[in-house]
Amino acid sequence: MKFLNKLCIAFMVATAATGCKKLDLAPTDRFSDLTFWTVDANVYNALNNNYSLIYNSGIYFYNEATSDNAYSSSGDYSLIASGNYTASQGKFLGDWAYYYSTIKSCNIFLANIDQNKTLSADVIARLKAETRFIRAFEHFNLAKWYGDVPLIDKDITADEAKTIARSPKATVIKFVIDELEAAAAALPTKDQIPASENGRITKGAALALEARVLLYEGNRMADVISVCEKLMSGQAGAYNLVSKYSDLFSNPTVNKTNNESLLSLQYVPSIRTWGEFFDFAPRSVGGRVSGMSPTQELVDSYITLNGKGINDAGSGYVESNPYVNRDPRLTATVVYDKFNWVNGNGTSKTIYIKPGTDPDASRLDEYNPASQASSPTGYYWRKYFDPIAQTSFTSGSNLHLIRYAEVLLDYAEAKQSLGQMDATVWNNTIGLLRRRAGFTDAGALDFPGTADVTNVIRRERRAELAMEGLRTDDIRRWKTAEAVLNGFAHGAKFGDAGVDNGYIRAQKRQFDPAKNYLWPIPASEIGLDPNLTQNPGY
Q1: pTM of the complete model beyond 0.85
Q2: Which long-range contacts (CB under 8 A, 24 or more apart) does 90-97 make?
Q3: pLDDT tens across 357-373, in order?
Q4: H or E element, residue 351
Q5: Is the Cβ–Cβ distance between 521 and 533 less than 8 Å?
Q6: 180: which strand partners?
Q7: Which of 84, 220, 288, 475 has the greatest CB tally within 10 Å of its CB?
């Protein structure tokens, strides 16, 4: 059975095993602490359980709503984006508990795996490396959101968990990097594993996550370059960009098997699925409600085909026909007025969003400010549309956590920050991404030596990675959140012509740089553990 199918039947065996009462003698009619880990199948089930806990589709998608790329009117995400949240919001406790429960499961695995005496030493070393990667990923997520957090590198009791203090963020990040480097040394390259193990953590995934962690630190760009060059030179296997951008997300075959994804959340139709797209798609093609919608700010960030921003002289942008002559990734990502929606069976449908323009008057407007079901921004999502989805857009497509495209963007950003960007670096990074996207004009493909290359790279990152959960990370580490998250998040030009030039005001947002660069430690956790302290301002 292939790895991703095994992943989908994983269960909470590790927790169950450690929950058994310890006995002087091992029972012969059931597993116990004394026998569980001696069975190879149990070890792999425990490992697969850890894989299933790496991340989830809700966090993957909806964190975008805390950035300037998207707006969600639902609960905590709306409160976070508007700056009207407290340490008691369920989102903060939910994420905190999710990451630490995964760390707990990993620590149980690492504390017990050596009880197995039938798996080879090499196999056990690999299983440990995979688990250490997962544990490092969870610690990294905690540190980037909450700053100083408890570093838990071994299994602890419930009583111990109520007394642990926060470790400095620098200590946590050092632990993460050390763990990733140790994991990379023990993991096989992508080219060394059989097709049946597609989806398992490899040396490439460990290096790519290390590059992300180092990039987010902001002061270790030489190290970012060094790690990225290992990946770009093939030291961890042969990675490259797939030929068509949208295939990564909406071609069932390419989505599952390609040389661009370094690590993806593994899903299988009818077995392990995700369903967020039901609330991302237009209503006229079967969407339910607009759970999260793209903003005008995201749409405006896509350049024109000659490489210019829409407000630059000579861009060719026409406000009355705003979606033509634009970066092809816009159409691959966002559904806009008169979008040509292609269904999985090859049929197509024009999506009329501007009120009063649908020729079929019997249909509801896709944008209707009086309806909670319609998009509050006048935009919907196309990215991650699954043409073979089940009812209600239930999908078995993989969700890409780390792509080779991100490695190229990391490398370009690091090179630019050290003053080392030139035409060669550009052609091997941004140039590659734009050629893959479909640009042909030299103005978009050639190195813009006289432009503000830093912001060009940042804009490229935004277009390439939109709706993949990384935009909030970027505006926080660049310290631009107070600039882009203060004021209104806008939608399409269907609003009051006398307000904001007619662009919809979707939400008033505020971001206090004195406190909002960190999330608050959940209030209930502080209530349980007197050694936990709160972040400033909360």
Answers
A1: yes
A2: 92/519, 92/520, 92/521, 92/522, 93/522, 93/524, 93/525, 95/59, 95/141, 95/145, 96/142, 96/146, 96/521, 96/522, 96/525
A3: 999 888 778 999 888 88
A4: strand 348-351
A5: yes
A6: none
A7: 475
